Amino acid sequence: MQKQPPTKSGPKKEDVIGSETVLEKIRRKTPWILGNKLRKPKVNFPKFKLPRLSLPMPSRSISIIGVFIILFILQTGIAYLVVRKPPALGANSAGDPIFIIESINEAFIIESIVASMLIILCSTGFIFLYRASKYIYDRKMAITILTIGILLILITFVALQYIISVKTGN
């Protein structure tokens, strides 16, 4: 078998591998379904280039710090503190300072801030759990980071449970 020399118009479509569209393949294998009447229109859509605004991106650690600051502000209950205007601290009948109001519906400002700090510490513990998985080849470092993460989570859980038990009067 001899190869046919290419013509002036170039190689035929059958000679180019992968040049057949899906519709042409279906039509070739099943001519009785689509027949020669159905053709896929070839439409050239214009390519629009939208102007790009290039802003410098902050580093990953600055972004995480920003997210933590926003979470801290939201978890503090800033809306509650602005609307209700609670006192920063209180005192009992003997004049001793109290930090936690024994009511679920009320809170001191310091109580909200402490609860928010505890939630942030718990979130940091979960980040340590995640970071421990990055030290798969350094077992001692992974166990150290894992232990710190678990301790942070447990300590904050116990502290938040204590605050809730004082607020409910148990």
Describe the structure in your own words.
Helices cover 52% and strands 2% of the residues. The chain is mostly helical and 170 residues long. The chain has a domain at 64-168. Strands 1-2 form a two-stranded antiparallel ribbon. Helix 3 (60-75) packs antiparallel against helix 5 and helix 5 (109-132) packs antiparallel against helix 6 (139-168). The mean pLDDT is 80.
Fold topology:
Layout: H1 22-29, H2 31-34, H3 60-75, H4 78-84, E1 90-91, E2 97-98, H5 109-132, H6 139-168
Antiparallel strand pairs: 1-2
Name the helix and strand elements from N-terminus to C-terminus, one letter apiece.
HHHHEEHH
Q: What is the rounded distance between the termini? A: 96 Å
Weakly predicted, low-confidence segments: none
Q: From the helix content, strand content and strand pairing, which structural class follows?
A: mainly alpha
The overall average pLDDT, rounded, is: 80
Number of helices: 6
Q: What's the arrangement of strands in the largest beta sheet?
A: 1-2
| Strands, total number | 2
Query: Major β-sheet, in short?
Result: 2 strands, antiparallel
Strand content: under 5%
Radius of gyration: 34 Å
Portion of residues in helices?
40-55%
Global outline: elongated
Offer a few descriptive terms.
elongated, single chain, mainly alpha
Short description:
The protein has 170 residues and is mainly α.
